């Protein structure tokens, strides 16, 4: 075809600009340019030496540190251990080794203690909030219109609080969002008090009034708020308590027609789902983390509970499960947030409890295996494996990636 | 030598879009150059069977289940019997697939290779490498493209992307850009306001089109230049953000939201402005900026994807995909327009020289010439290529290809080739080489469905550029007729 003869021939070798024989011919030509609008004396399938020179590999990859990974894996260890604790407790109750009321009572006492710690933390958080707010006003002189007009959403205060030296930037948004949320309604962790709420509430109030006195400017509204918050908690705890009490007979007869084999299988799958879907990464500011995981665990405990002989058994086990799967993850997250040492202690205690439970119910050999697998396999082995897998990392970036828009937020929302 | 070509893609008219118009324009130009082209696509609603478009472009609407955004269900083999029938009926030499998200195109290429036909594939879009959907698409692409004869990409960036995604030899990939029908995008300086500078934005309002940047930039530009106006056309999930921004900053009389517009209305919107703003975050080619430049608009665009390759620097101001830089670039453009330092009047003729579908058809033809010269591989060599695709994928692909081959053998036994009717040829046009000289007026006729209409064309160096059709009301332009047929 006559058009073809006029056009430059298709070239067949890769990067022929560097190939020796064609060099003399190419020297006369203008250098190739990566442009479409200009007609160039090169074939359409020309591969220039600049081909893929904007390719970047593994630019965003940061190498993992072994001990950081091990430290991060403690959350998994904690959760798996709490599942094991729950299951062994169930077996113990099922085999009549432990009384159900003992279990529910003990866990309730622990829950109340946990709430108390959490509530104390609330005081410190509030104090810090106020201090931060004052510092901000003193340092930055934000125009009053700005600070009043903008609602205390997570976006706006973040920018203002950056210069404070005491806390890391990661923690700041959490504390601010806490402030914004306690204006309206206490967040869910306040449900931590369950059974003996009525007796403990006055204690908490007195301790809180002490704390309130210690603060430099205790506004009356704040005090009222705090009492209100505790009353709310007590109310919802009482509500859950009564509902459970009422539901227990129904739950007991729920799966009468199903064979135990199916129940064990179902519970196993549900606990697996719980472990897999659990939200290991989020911090304290998440309101309802991983509802799928929590629902799976509660359902597993309900089907297990339905195998137990009396209503008291069923009630105690479901109550225990709510404390283990509903409340303790929040408390664990909180502990990790406030103190690393407490977090490690909790991890060790949980592993110990799980191992003891296994030892008492199944056998000490299995308890040893459990500790070995968890500490050696999950914490050490998996961390090492993840690091080893990094050698296969091949992240490709180039001009074809969708750009990330950079937007300054003061004009938008 | 004229070829019989089948273009295969899930995306074709009546659905509007870039791939669709690319296939239509390329096919009609190839027909102008003497080839026979058919288009195979899936049925759209009750539009099934065979339809003819302008120039005798035959479209097969094959009934198929559509799963997501007009893509058909990837069934791998179920398309083969009807595909073989069409191919034999039309005596096809080359199967040319379009768009990597179209499973019909991938299947067509696989079956065509099984039948020993030549294949070509045009990639129109850019993909990442990180998310699950991309990984799956890339694997599929690798499967189809392991044995394709040649690949065409619409920009150099697109070529780099495709070469990496499908692990291809870069010499088997050609870059042939999109084009615009410059006649449809003529400037009209009388339509733009002489007092105010108007900035036009035409895009679907999605995240990847950079609507967030637009929302952030418009109020800032409006506050810097109190006389600047905006016209925003297009719809999408981000339209609400734009409307909120307009209300918040009280820009109702300065930002005009037109909503969705048809492709043929684009020119009429564009000529009302002075500057075209294109804040997209990813783009393989960006035909719309070429259209804008053709309408005589100064283009402000983000430097992403293939965009930097598309237009010369005197027609564009580039910005990084950042709010501040976009505002700066727009301000620069406004100043330049005010000072009159850009010759937007010349843009149309320049763009016309840069991009034309005739040129695209010529270059595509060259690709066809080349792939038909290549030695055809036998089955064993093809299987070797597929086997190299990966530890597991390679074996799976080989199984697919072998099954496909067996199906072909079975089909040949059940419906032997001689039992299949051959389609009667559309009366071929004269090859354009016979037209004596450039600039001459050519009269001819075209059969549109039921009636024969006289056509006026102008001979150019590359072929006959049809100018219009004589109707009772006078000379109708080519595009108005095409539009009528394409949209019915």
Structure description:
The complex is a heterodimer of chains A (about 425) and B (about 500). By secondary structure, chain A is an all-alpha fold. Helix content of chain A is about 65%, strand content about 0%. Chain A has two domains: about 1-50, no CATH class; about 100-340, no CATH class. Chain A has helices spanning about 1-5, 25, 65-70, 75-95, 100-140, 145-150, 155-160, 170-185, 195-215, 220-250, 260-275, 290-305, 310-340, 340-360, 365-390, and strands at about 55, 395. Chain A is elongated and about 95 Å long. Chain B has three domains: about 5-180 and about 355-420, Rossmann fold (3-Layer(aba) Sandwich); about 180-355, Glycogen Phosphorylase B (Rossmann fold); about 430-485, no CATH class. Chain B is built from 16 helices and 20 strands. In chain B, the strands form four sheets. In chain B, strands 3-4-2-1-7-8-9-10 form an eight-stranded mixed beta sheet, sandwiched between helices. At the A-B interface, helix 1 of A face helix 5, strand 10, helix 6, helix 10 and helix 13 of B. Chain A: Keywords: Glycosyltransferase, GPI-anchor biosynthesis, Membrane, Transferase, Transmembrane, Transmembrane helix. Chain A: It is a multi-pass membrane protein.
Offer a concise description of the structure.
The complex is a heterodimer of chains A (413) and B (488). With 413 residues, chain A is mainly α.
């Amino acid at each position: 075809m006559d058009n073809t003869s006029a056009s430059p021939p298709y070239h067949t070798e890769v990067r022929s600009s560097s190939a020796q024989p064609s060099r003399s011919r190419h020297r006369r030509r203008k250098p190739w340019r990566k442009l479409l609008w200009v007609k160039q004396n090169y074939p359409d399938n020309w591969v220039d030496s600049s081909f893929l020179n904007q390719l970047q590999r593994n630019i965003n990859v940061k190498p993992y540190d072994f001990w950081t990974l091990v430290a991060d894996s403690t959350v998994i260890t904690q959760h798996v251990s709490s599942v094991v604790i729950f299951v062994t407790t169930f077996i113990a109750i099922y085999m009549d080794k432990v009384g159900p009321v003992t279990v529910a009572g003990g866990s309730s006492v622990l829950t109340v203690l946990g709430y108390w710690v959490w509530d104390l933390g609330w005081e410190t958080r509030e104090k810090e909030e106020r201090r931060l707010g004052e510092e901000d006003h003193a340092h930055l002189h934000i125009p009053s219109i700005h600070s009043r007009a903008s609602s205390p959403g997570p976006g706006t205060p973040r920018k203002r609080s950056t210069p404070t030296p005491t806390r890391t930037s990661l923690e700041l948004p959490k504390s601010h969002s806490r402030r914004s949320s306690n204006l309206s309604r206490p967040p869910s962790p306040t449900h931590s008090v369950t059974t003996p709420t009525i007796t403990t509430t006055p204690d908490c109030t007195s301790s809180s009034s002490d704390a309130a006195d210690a603060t430099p400017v205790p506004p009356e509204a704040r005090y009222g708020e705090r009492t209100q918050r505790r009353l709310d908690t007590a109310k919802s705890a009482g509500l859950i308590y009564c509902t459970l009490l009422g539901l227990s007979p129904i739950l007991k007869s729920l799966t009468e027609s199903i064979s135990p084999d199916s129940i064990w299988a179902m519970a196993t799958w549900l606990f697996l789902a719980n472990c897999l879907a659990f939200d290991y990464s989020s911090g304290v500011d998440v309101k309802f983390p991983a509802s799928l995981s929590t629902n799976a665990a509660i359902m597993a405990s309900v089907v297990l509970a339905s195998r137990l002989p009396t209503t008291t058994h069923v009630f105690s086990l479901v109550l225990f499960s709510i404390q283990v799967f509903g409340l303790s993850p929040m408390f664990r997250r909180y502990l990790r947030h406030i103190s690393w040492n407490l977090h490690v202690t909790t991890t060790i205690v949980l592993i110990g409890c799980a191992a003891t439970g296994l030892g008492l119910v199944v056998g000490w050999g299995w308890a040893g295996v459990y500790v070995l697998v968890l500490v050696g396999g999950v914490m050490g082995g998996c961390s090492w494996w993840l690091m080893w897998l990094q050698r296969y990392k091949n992240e490709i970036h180039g001009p074809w990636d969708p750009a990330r828009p950079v937007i300054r937020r003061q004009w938008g929302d | 030598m004229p070829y019989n070509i089948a273009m295969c893609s899930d995306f074709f008219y009546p659905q509007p879009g870039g791939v669709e118009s690319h296939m239509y324009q390329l096919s009609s130009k190839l027909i102008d150059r003497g080839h026979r082209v058919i288009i195979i696509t899936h049925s759209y609603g009750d539009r099934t069977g065979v339809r003819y478009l302008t120039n005798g472009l035959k479209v097969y609407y094959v009934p198929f289940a559509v799963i997501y955004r007009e893509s058909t269900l990837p069934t791998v083999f179920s398309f083969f019997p009807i595909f073989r029938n069409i191919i034999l009926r039309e005596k096809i030499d080359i199967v040319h697939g379009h768009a990597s998200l179209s499973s019909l195109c991938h299947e067509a290429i696989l079956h065509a290779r099984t039948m020993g036909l030549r294949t070509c594939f045009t990639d129109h879009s850019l993909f990442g490498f990180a998310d699950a959907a991309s990984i799956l698409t890339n694997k599929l692409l690798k499967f189809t493209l392991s044995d394709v004869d040649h690949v065409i990409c619409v920009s150099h960036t697109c070529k780099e992307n495709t070469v990496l995604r499908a692990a291809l030899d870069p010499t088997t990939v050609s870059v042939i850009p999109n084009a615009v029908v410059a006649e449809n995008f003529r400037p009209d300086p009388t339509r733009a306001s002489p007092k105010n500078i108007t900035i036009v934005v035409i895009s679907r309002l999605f995240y990847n089109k950079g609507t967030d940047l637009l929302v952030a930039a418009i109020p800032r530009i409006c506050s810097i230049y109190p006389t600047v106006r905006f016209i925003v056309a297009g719809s999408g999930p981000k339209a609400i953000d734009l409307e909120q921004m307009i209300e918040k900053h009280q820009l109702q009389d300065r930002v005009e939201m037109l909503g969705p517009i048809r492709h043929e209305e684009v020119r009429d919107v564009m000529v009302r402005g002075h500057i075209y703003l294109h804040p997209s975050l990813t783009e393989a080619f960006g035909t719309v900026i070429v259209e804008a430049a053709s309408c005589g608009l100064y283009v402000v665009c983000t430097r992403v994807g293939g965009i930097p390759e598309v237009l010369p620097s005197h027609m564009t101001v580039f910005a990084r995909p950042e709010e501040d830089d976009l505002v700066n670039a727009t301000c620069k453009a406004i100043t330049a327009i005010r000072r009159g330092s850009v010759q937007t009047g010349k843009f149309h003729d320049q763009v016309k020289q840069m991009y034309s579908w005739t040129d695209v058809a010529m270059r595509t033809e060259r690709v066809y010439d080349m792939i038909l010269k290549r030695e055809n591989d036998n089955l064993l060599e093809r299987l070797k290529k597929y086997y190299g695709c990966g530890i597991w994928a390679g074996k799976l692909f080989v199984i697919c290809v072998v099954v496909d081959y067996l199906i072909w053998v079975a089909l040949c036994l059940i419906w032997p080739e001689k039992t299949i009717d051959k389609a009667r040829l559309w009366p071929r046009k004269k090859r354009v080489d016979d037209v004596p000289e450039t600039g001459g007026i050519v009269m001819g006729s075209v059969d549109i469905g039921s009636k024969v209409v006289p056509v006026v064309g102008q001979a150019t160096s590359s072929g006959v550029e049809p100018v219009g059709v004589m109707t009772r009301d006078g000379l109708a332009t080519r595009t108005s007729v095409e539009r009528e047929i394409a949209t019915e």
